UniProtKB/TrEMBL annotation:
All residue ranges annotated as the DUF397 domain in the record: 4-58
Organism for this UniProt entry: Actinomadura soli
Protein name stated in the entry: DUF397 domain-containing protein
């Protein structure tokens, strides 16, 4: 099975150009991995879980 990993088109911008994650569709779930270390494995999360996390990040509700 060939997995298509995608990185944001904005990942090469600014001071954080190297701080990126890649996403892939995996059997109805989403794979998330570090773009700098793609061979170190990935996390698999549900679409709703990822959607909630992104909302929390955009709303600056996490101490990141």
């Amino acid at each position: 099975m060939n997995i298509e990993w995608r990185k944001s088109s904005r990942s090469g911008m600014g001071d954080t150009a190297g701080d990126c994650v890649e996403l892939a569709s995996l059997d109805g779930k989403i794979g998330v991995r570090d773009s700098k270390n793609p061979h170190n494995g990935h996390l698999t999360v549900g679409r709703d879980t990822l959607r909630h996390l992104v909302r929390q990040i955009k709303a600056d509700k996490l101490n990141l």
